[in-house]
Design brief:
The structure holds four protein chains of four kinds. Chain A is α/β, with parallel strands linked by helices. Chain A contains twelve helices and ten strands. Chain A has a domain of 71 residues. Chain A is 39% helix and 24% strand. In chain A, the strands form two sheets. Chain A has a six-stranded mixed β-sheet, with helices on both faces. A four-stranded antiparallel β-sheet of chain A has the order 2-1-4-5, covered by helices on one side. By secondary structure, chain B is mainly α. Helices cover 74% and strands 0% of the residues of chain B. Chain B contains eleven helices and no strands. In chain B, helix 2 packs across helix 11 and helix 3 runs parallel beside helix 11. Chain B is elongated, with a radius of gyration of 22 Å. Chain C folds into two domains: 71 residues; 213 residues, MetI-like (MetI-like fold, Orthogonal Bundle). Chain C contains 13 helices and no strands. Classes of the chains: A alpha/beta, B mainly alpha, C mainly alpha, D alpha/beta. Chains B and C meet through helix 4, helix 5, helix 9, helix 10 and helix 11 of B and helix 1, helix 6, helix 7, helix 10 and helix 11 of C.
């Protein structure tokens, strides 16, 4: 459905050009959940932002192709790109705290994509927004609709982000470390929610995380990145249990194992 | 600070050069002025700009260049005194209220806010009408008017810092309150404080000039840029240069400090 | 609403503190008015009788109460030098100061908001750089020097107005406002430059925040990100500044009045300071202080309306 | 040497809630409720909980940084602390040498040379080179900063170290290094460590005993093995499941 070939991203932020993503390839099929794993500075977020069409800085050079419904998102004009953003491609971010506009009501933010991409009337938009808030398992959606971001907890905010990203039924959802800032139990709920959305709507999800064990729980396919390169690419089980690359092995070894010590000792 | 960063900081460079030149000229003016700033020479009344009189002469035939030099010195002394009072008391109040919080903070900050809400010129006018005019009264009046703005800045920096983990570890290591305040936290407020000091200089220069312009600031025989401007206003049509030079001097002084302040902020 | 009430209460408390301070300060320095009133005819008995009559033997706080109550009723005492009620003098001049300051405020907004937004939108472009440099210079111009320059350029060279040709609002309101056109510009220019700089940097720093990225990810155009998302957030610090600028301009009008020969509150204040006409000085300072506090209170309330995080606290 | 280094009995901590008007009754929120536990000398005790569970408040009351009710018996010199954010815990305006020397300066009684010598020894122990002494915290990587923070905490040779989420801000590979370092130092110095974390895997790796906290109360405590594989409290089970740890 979306095919990324040979994506290269270069920066001119400092005096010398600095490449942050090299030869990135990815194909995402309908209804699939793909994980993108790496440590900080591995280029995973950069690649995700590029796919979402959110890298537009002047000091940046991009090469390659991101093909979605026959259009190359990397070099199409902004207007075409905007038609996809929020409509066909939704995105959620790591910090639900700062990713919502602090001075706008939740309802306004959730229905924004509808306002931009459809001709629905105000009432219809509100109806859809409240339905969506209900779907992401927020209690009292009517109340939340009228609230401001600072009145919600971190987990609730991330649900609002998901509702806003999913309101136009996008074909792809890009989730950039959506659970890193949350507690484990909340994290589990959000992951379950993403899984359910994926199953119900056949939305393809690109899940970016530094947490290999979390990615293993959620994803079918995994890409491991390091220093801008994809070092390993395969099914989640394969990578988690039989890693081929040295770096992947190191990553897995760094996760503390919970194995009975009696067994370990013997 | 490293040199590479400074070289890129255009505001800082421009500000340093401008302020440097102005300060050098004013310093030189302390030891030598082409003429005595107060000597009148009827033959040179309204003399134009020439090599003899770099900025011409005023209505009494006094050399404007010499008067500008001596006036800027007065202005700078007043500004420095004002900022000194503001910074010293501002740091004390800001550090104590920010660090300890509680009732002391509530009370002092209420007063502070009340004073802060007042335009400094109005406050200075109030003090002048109580104390009478003159250089030292201006310094005290403006100094008091400037304390709240510094206290606010220092206080918010202290509040930001006191909750940081490095302060907690210093406490655990056994550092006392005063050591934490002035050895651990204060250096961390320097960037913000220096930038505020530069802005303070600016406001002090402008306020002093404004008060002298109104005739309630520095009194003769001290020359003052503001007073020169108010005298020059009467002769604006016949001798526009008389107003231009003191005015330009104020602009250059303020511009220099303003650029420095911006440069320090970006540091 | 609760928040607004709180702010009004704070304002009243501050106003009380300020007036008390002003009263006590002048009470201390003004010495004994009885001696100067009786002059050579002073005998201890007559002085004592007059003191009793004027209530000068009461405790200071009672005297303050009487003064404050009189003030509220519009009785601000009698001017020593003009021998007329202070309230009449002030009521006559207050509209001048208020009109001029409001005009300056409008100038500031009209200049600052469009230019600041334009500069932020085209950050790093040629126009933005020119604006930044010009701005930096204008900020350094003292308002009274701006006034002198304007007098010279527009008054003497282009002859667009007659310096010193002030017309009272009681005579001709149109000409009165016309004359204030340039003085208010002189007050507004340096403040407008500061507002431009603040708005520009506020918008630019808001544009770097996460919620802007979210807005783009929903398909917003640059324009709608700026106007529908960023502007309201970016205005929060600017509103604080505009409020402070307005109170500064009220005070700054004192100086500009001198430059353009406008007989407003500033003129009375200055003559009374040099004449040691304390009832007038006190009244003018309290009036200006009240104006400033009301402005601050209004700004606080607007602030609470714009930023939902404030009103909840 | 099996004496208890820390005995906490019936600890209660509450924070006052700010009142809307001065006429309202004073209210407070209880953040720690009936906390009792003991910690043995030389052990690593894990403290697990989600945000708002009161882990950090517990640490602060042990360090006597906040008022509390109940008794805390500390059979030790002043404990030291390692914080989560290794940037905030190092004074940004000072060089590393100054930061490491400061505890010794505060204690007094040592000459400049002796202090420098001690700093150098400690630097070696945490695996850093001497040239780092002239740098500022902002010039170091996250891992290096956390090593410095550990070194600074150990300068006064404490017997009890409280580590509040010391590796949460670090990448997994760096995390593994810092954990290894902490374990090594703990053995070498016979240090007792109260290890606060939200990460159940890390706690299992590091600790001998563990306390599971929720909403200001201890839900379960005991030997790590016991708690992880035979948990009695459903909340522990929920946490383990959420972390994807299979203990069946």
């Amino acid at each position: 459905m979306i095919r990324v070939t040979d994506l290269n991203i270069e920066f001119f932020d400092h005096e010398r050009p600095e490449t942050v993503v090299y030869d990135f390839d990815l194909t995402l099929h309908e209804g699939e959940i793909v994980g993108l794993v790496g440590e900080s500075g591995s280029g995973k977020s950069m690649s995700a932002l590029a796919i979402a069409g959110l890298l537009s800085r002047k000091d940046m050079k991009k090469r390659g192709e991101i093909l979605f419904e026959g259009v190359n998102l990397l070099d199409c004009d902004r207007k075409t790109l905007r038609k996809f953003q929020g409509n066909e491609i939704g995105m959620i971010f790591q910090e639900p705290m700062t990713s919502l506009n602090p001075v706008k009501k939740i309802g306004w933010q959730v229905e924004e994509a509808l306002r931009l991409h459809t001709d629905l009337s105000k009432e219809e938009r509100k109806k859809r927004a409240i339905e969506m808030l209900q779907k992401v398992e927020l209690h009292e959606p009517e109340r939340v609709y009228e609230q401001y971001p600072h009145e919600l907890s971190g987990g609730m905010r991330q649900r609002v982000m998901i509702a806003a990203a999913m309101i136009c039924d996008p074909k792809i959802l890009i989730a950039d470390e959506p659970t890193t800032a949350l507690d484990v139990t909340i994290q589990e709920q959000i992951v379950a929610l993403l899984k359910r959305i994926n199953q119900e709507k056949k939305t393809a999800i690109l899940f970016i995380s530094h947490d290999l064990s979390l990615v293993h729980q959620l994803c079918e396919r995994v890409l491991v990145m390091k220093g801008g390169y994809v070092v390993e690419n395969g099914s989640a089980d394969e990578i988690f249990y039989h890693p081929k690359e040295e770096y992947t092995k190191k990553l897995i070894a760094a996760i503390p194992k919970v194995v009975r010590k009696t067994e370990k000792d013997s | 600070m490293n040199w590479k960063k400074i070289r890129k900081n255009k505001n800082f460079i421009a500000g340093s050069i401008l302020t440097g030149i102005m300060l050098l000229l004013i310093l030189a003016g302390c030891f030598y002025t082409p003429y005595n700033p107060n000597t009148m020479d009827p033959s040179a009344k309204f003399a134009g700009v020439s090599l003899k009189h770099l900025m011409g002469c005023d209505n009494f035939g006094r050399d404007i260049f010499s008067r500008v030099l001596s006036g800027s010195r007065t202005t700078l002394i007043v500004a420095a005194g004002t900022v000194l009072i503001g910074v010293v008391f501002g740091i004390l109040i800001g550090a104590l209220t920010g660090y300890y919080g509680g009732v002391l903070d509530e009370v002092l900050m209420r007063i502070n806010d009340a004073v802060f809400a007042f335009p400094s010129i109005l406050l200075a006018l109030l003090f002048i009408s109580l104390l009478g005019s003159g250089k030292y009264h201006v310094i005290i009046a403006l100094g008091i008017a400037f304390v709240p703005s510094f206290a606010r800045i220092v206080r918010s920096e202290f509040i930001r810092n006191k909750n940081m983990d490095y302060v907690k570890s210093a406490k655990l290591q056994g550092a006392g309150d005063f050591r934490i305040m002035f050895v651990h936290i204060l250096p961390n407020t320097m960037t913000v404080l220096l930038s505020a000091i530069m802005i303070g200089f600016n406001n002090a220069v402008l306020a002093e000039a404004g008060m002298s312009f109104l005739g309630i600031g520095v009194q003769p025989p001290d020359a003052s840029l503001g007073r020169m401007l108010s005298e020059a206003q009467s002769f604006l049509f016949s001798a526009p240069m008389y107003a231009l030079f003191p005015g330009l001097t104020i602009i250059l002084l303020v511009l220099g400090f303003g650029l420095l302040s911006d440069g320090l902020k970006n540091e | 609403m609760r928040y607004a009430g709180k702010k009004i209460l704070t304002m009243c408390v501050t106003l009380f503190a300020v007036t008390l301070f002003v009263f006590l300060a002048f009470h201390m320095i003004s010495g004994d008015p009885v001696t100067s009133m009786l002059g050579t005819q002073a005998t201890p008995e007559r002085a004592e009788a007059l003191r009793e009559e004027l209530g000068l033997n009461d405790p200071v706080l009672v005297q303050y109460g009487r003064w404050a109550a009189g003030f509220l009723k519009g009785d601000m005492g009698t001017s020593y030098s003009y021998r007329m009620p202070v309230s009449e003098m002030i009521v006559d001049k207050l509209p001048v100061t208020i009109t001029m300051t409001l005009m300056a405020f409008v100038w500031m907004i009209l200049i600052a908001i469009p230019v600041g937004l334009y500069a932020a939108k085209h950050e790093g472009g040629v126009v933005d750089r020119i604006i930044t440099v010009v701005n930096q210079i204008i900020m350094a111009v003292p308002p009274f020097f701006a006034g002198i320059l304007i007098t010279f350029v527009f008054g003497m060279i282009f002859r667009l107005f007659t310096p010193g040709g002030y017309v009272s609002y009681q005579v001709n309101t149109g000409k009165f406002v016309g004359y204030l056109f340039f003085p208010s510009l002189a007050i507004a220019l340096p403040k407008a430059a500061m507002a431009i700089k603040l708005l520009r940097s506020s918008v630019i720093s808001e544009l770097k925040l996460d919620y802007v990225r979210t807005a783009y990810s929903r398909g917003n155009s640059k324009r709608s990100v700026l106007y529908r998302h960023v502007l309201k957030n970016a205005m929060i610090p600017v509103i604080t500044f505009l409020g402070m600028a307005l109170s500064d301009m009220i005070a700054g009008s004192i100086i500009i009045e001198q430059v353009f020969g406008i007989p407003g509150l500033g003129r009375i204040l200055l003559t009374s300071i040099s004449n040691r006409d304390y009832p007038v000085v006190m009244a003018v300072i309290v009036c200006i202080a009240t104006l400033v506090l009301v402005v601050n209170m209004i700004v606080d309330v607007i602030y609470g309306l714009v930023d939902p995080r404030i009103s909840v606290e | 040497m099996t004496e208890n280094i820390l005995e906490v009995t019936d600890l209660q901590v509450s924070y006052p809630v700010s009142r809307k008007t001065p006429f309202e009754k004073k209210k407070s929120i209880q953040v720690l409720k009936d906390i009792s536990f003991t910690m043995k000398r030389g052990e690593i005790l894990g403290l697990v909980g989600e945000s708002g569970s009161g882990k950090t408040t517990l640490a602060r009351s042990i360090l006597q940084m906040i008022p509390y009710e109940g008794t805390i018996i500390r059979n030790t010199v002043q404990p030291q602390m390692v914080f989560q954010d290794p940037y905030g815990s190092l004074n940004p305006s000072q060089r590393i040498a100054w930061i490491l020397e400061e505890p010794l300066r505060l204690k007094g009684g040592l000459s400049k040379e002796e202090r420098v010598q001690k700093v150098k020894t400690m630097l070696q122990r945490v695996g850093l080179e001497e040239k780092i002494l002239e740098r500022f915290p902002r010039e170091l990587s996250g891992g290096q900063r956390q090593r410095i923070a550990i070194a600074a905490a150990l300068m006064l040779e404490p017997e009890l170290l409280i580590a509040d989420e010391p590796v949460s801000a670090l990448d997994v590979t760096i995390q593994a290094q810092i954990l290894a370092l902490l374990k090594e130092i703990q053995k070498e110095m016979n240090l007792s460590i109260l290890f606060i974390s939200h990460d159940l895997r890390v706690v299992y790796e590091m600790c001998d005993h563990v306390l599971i906290m929720q909403l200001g109360q201890i839900r379960e405590s005991g030997d790590v093995e016991e708690v992880y594989f035979h948990h009695k409290d459903p909340y522990t089970g929920k946490l383990l499941k959420a972390a994807g740890i299979e203990t069946a």
